[in-house]
Specification:
3 helices, mainly alpha, single chain
């Protein structure tokens, strides 16, 4: 299991812990799952978050 997959699972578990359900819970799960996947992919070297956060100034 890659780090990005573990990050996705961690983000989804955080969403379950925070959200009580409904449409807002679904949206929160998607956002936190995507954030967890992005952080995990960054640690795997699949995604460069520094490049995304730096913008056009780099």
């Amino acid at each position: 299991m890659t780090t990005s997959t573990l990050g996705l699972i961690a983000g989804l578990l955080l969403a379950i812990a925070v959200a009580t359900g409904g449409f807002l819970g679904l949206l929160l799960g998607i956002v936190l799952g995507g954030a967890g996947y992005a952080v995990g992919a960054h640690f795997d070297g699949q995604l460069d978050l520094g490049e995304l956060l730096r913008g056009r100034r780099g």
